[in-house]
Amino acid sequence: MKVNGSEILLKDSVNLQEFLEKHQYDTTKIAVEKNSEIIPKANYKEVMLSDTDVLEIVSFVGGG
């Protein structure tokens, strides 16, 4: 699987929520695109990941 352009090996079947928690993403401050489709936060637990998926994870940064 590719995440932000880097290869990551999935050892087990995992949903998006579990993956994000394992990799210490703050789900309140990110947006996730899987295979060119934006995933609503409410669906993170239902979206299963596979080795062929491509994720883009974007963090929101405050400032002024």
UniProtKB/TrEMBL annotation:
Q: Which InterPro entries match?
A: Beta-grasp_dom_sf, Mopterin_synth/thiamin_S_b, Thi_S, ThiS/MoaD-like
> Superkingdom of this entry's organism?
Bacteria
SUPFAM superfamilies to which the protein is assigned, alphabetical: MoaD/ThiS (SSF54285)
Under Gene3D superfamilies, the record lists: 3.10.20.30
Locate the coiled-coil region(s) and give their ranges.
none
PANTHER family named among the record's database cross-references = SULFUR CARRIER PROTEIN THIS
In Swiss-Prot or TrEMBL terms, this protein is called Sulfur carrier protein ThiS
Give the species this sequence originates from: Anaerosacchariphilus polymeriproducens
